[in-house]
Design brief:
Number of helices: 8
Number of strands: 0
Helix content: 55-70%
Pfam families: HD
GO molecular function: hydrolase activity
CATH architecture of the largest domain: Orthogonal Bundle
Largest sheet: none
Number of domains: 2
Organism: Escherichia coli
Strand content: under 5%
InterPro entries: HD/PDEase_dom (IPR003607), HD_domain (IPR006674)
CATH class of the largest domain: Mainly Alpha
Protein name: Hydrolase
Distance between the termini: 28 Å
Length: about 200
């Protein structure tokens, strides 16, 4: 889950719907509560591991908490342990391939985001905007994920699954051009991940 995205969404909603609210309950109050909630969540994770999973090795608690924090793309926390690198790669792999494709359109649909810009679906003549167009998310984030992978196997899987997304884009491009049986090889050439 992209917490930064949701923080921005909530702040925009507050600005639009509660701009005349008293000063004690303004957007700055929300930001303070949001930051405190994140700190409490980290501390609660540590407590749960200690108290609810008593058999869990105490010396592993900080490593688990670090892996949870570092897995987030938006948090931009570098994974410092092998475990954190593996969890980060696993989370990013879930954003690629067939599952990633389904997730992009499921989230976009839930947020009321258009599938793509009908005039310029691959943003050749406009800035990318994945808050307005689901397909733009491929270029703003998903196709960049293979370069962020921490493990050798994670990178291999990410490149393979990113290529699946490129092939989807190529098929979509062909269909938009009225070619229902082929793919647009220019899209494959332009967007295929470097091996």
């Amino acid at each position: 889950m992209d917490l930064q995205h949701w923080q921005t969404q909530f702040e925009n909603w507050l600005k639009n719907h509660h701009q005349h609210q008293d000063a004690a309950h303004d957007v700055y109050h929300f930001r303070r509560v949001w930051a405190t909630a994140q700190k409490l969540a980290a501390e609660e994770t540590r407590r749960l591991l200690r108290e609810e999973f008593e058999q869990f090795p105490a010396e592993k608690i900080e490593a688990v908490c670090h892996a949870i924090a570092a897995h987030s793309f938006s948090a931009q926390i570098a994974p410092l342990t092998t475990e954190a690198k593996i969890v980060q790669d696993a989370d990013r792999l879930d954003a690629l391939g067939a599952i990633g494709l389904a997730r992009v359109f499921a989230v976009s649909g839930a947020l009321g985001v258009a599938l793509f810009d009908g005039e310029d679906p691959f943003a050749q003549y406009r800035p990318l905007d994945d808050k307005r167009y689901a397909l733009d998310h491929f270029q703003t984030k998903l196709l960049k994920l293979p370069q962020t992978m921490q493990t050798v196997r994670g990178k291999q899987l990410a490149q393979h699954n990113a290529q699946f997304l490129v092939e989807f884009m190529a098929k979509l491009s062909a269909e938009l051009a009225g070619e229902n049986e082929g793919v647009d090889h220019k899209v494959i050439d332009a967007f295929s991940p470097a091996g």
